[in-house]
Amino acid sequence: MRLPSIDILRALAIVLMIVVHFVENLSGSYGSDGGPFLGAARYGWLPTGFAAPLFTFLSGVSYRLWLDAQTRRGRDDVTISKATVRRGLLLMLLGFAFNVVVWTPEDVFNWDVLTFIGTAILALDVVRRMPPWPTALTACLVVAVSPALRSLADYPAAWTDGSFDYDFTLHDVALGFLVTGYFPVFPWIAFPIAGFLAAPAILGPAAGGEDRGPLRPLAGGGLLVAASAVAIALRPVLPSTLTSSTAAWTMFPATTAYVLGTLGATVIALTLLHRRLDGGDGRAAVATPWASALSRHALTIYLLHHVVHVWPLWAWGYASTGEMTSLWQVAMPAWIAVVCGLVCVVAMAVVARWMDQTRAPSAESLLRWLSDP
Amino acid sequence: MIIDENDPRRSEASTDGAPGSVERIPLCGDRVLELAMLPLSAADQADTGAVGGGSLSSRAERWIAEGAVDRTHTLVLPLFGTLTVWSPTRAFVAGPDERLEQLRASVVEFTSLFAELDDIERRLAAALPHVDDDAALAADFTTAALSRRGELSARFREAVSLRRRLALLTPPLHVPAPQPPTLAGQLGERLRERTRIVERAGFAVEQAELLERVYAVCADRTSEHAIARRQAALEWTIIVLLAAEVVLLVVDALANRTT
To answer: What ipTM does the predicted assembly reach?
Structure first.
């Protein structure tokens, strides 16, 4: 069963992701202070840092829906586990391949979002066996210990000019996976766990829960946003060892305020969209086919939009200077990158609809074929 | 026993179409017995001869049929110059004036037992179809079934309630007829025989025992599952805290190695 609320939220994440990636990769050094495009130097108008929380939270929600569907079909625990582990490992494998093929071989262990979602799916196979309260405690602990872990791991030392810069050593790679990479387990695993945990409360019977109204998830989301504000307010009085970021709200590293704020906003957005659109009365009829197509092919679009803007960038840079990455973040002004990104969004929507209508093979169909029971 | 002679719901009912004066007697639940009584003189008995075959019997049967829920239950019992036509909701007794009260008492007592058993049987019939599905939970209670805890608990309480009612109902059904035989005693005996009420009570006891067994095990499983979940939550909490400590140690160790 597809829920318009999830499709629309994931489609929004795709649009934000494409535009932000185009601007960051093609125009990053045109940042507000003219320097590397990180932390506070980002464009104020660019909606950076909202797509990944949406994707990762929705991966937890989708896993809960998938799990319920498998249980309803009478699939046993071992079959569900095998399918989950296969899917998680395949996504991690795809993530490594993507890092090598789209970026560069030395970026293989940069711990980008695909390897993270693969890890998250593996973790969810454990989480699904846990009672709710220890699961919630896990998510809270992850958020709580992450600043301490960043401090222990000396997070700023692992980053150079706004990029994760690691050595090919076991400890650097392991620390990147746990704490210092682009999407490390700490604190990003809190998003899929929260999505898995909150899905029944937000979606009610659609996710195997009871319909107790929107008040509880809205209050929970509100509390998270309030906690985020408190974390921002407390930052000046926190010891410097716990504030490894340049500002209170940054995505790299994902600060406590950022995690709580985006998590709260996502919970509120999904609750409101679910109440507004999932009634089955056609209120989402216009947006749903396009959003559904984008959502259904999110993985393909993730891979494809990188290919269409990063590979030309490498080719153009190699052709002009002989150095493949020479034009990275300096290829064009931001407004041109935004236009290119929006054109890409339209093109991806058309491609996704075409794949839907023709049942053309996609990354998703390959993943299903390889992993589904 | 089951009938309260002072029940405020007791009343005289309309006698329209009834072959005698009608009394409404409340039974278990919201059931009511409409009992028509007609005193017969010696001449009436002589006129009618065998009262069971006469027009009085036909009139009584017609009146009972008008108010009967189930016509298969209508019994006609002529006995020593008296006539009793009985159904679970309406009954008619006719006989010499001095015997009417005995007949009335016998009919009312039997009907009250019958109504109680009938109500128990209906409840059993409603509960038994769930047993096949619920028995699976007695063998293997899953987390997915937790949402049915209230439902299972209600069914267990219902099973116990039915067993209790049957435990109260069965002894009066097995009370021996008075010796030397009386008219009321014989009427009661015949009503019990014709309705097979003793056998039916036996089957009801077996069915209630089945329900009680299944739902008692379900209640045990539910309780065990709830306790196991609490223990599992505690164990997982310890695991999570230990895992957090391990992660801190690992990251610290890796970071020290790097530096």
So the answer is: 0.74
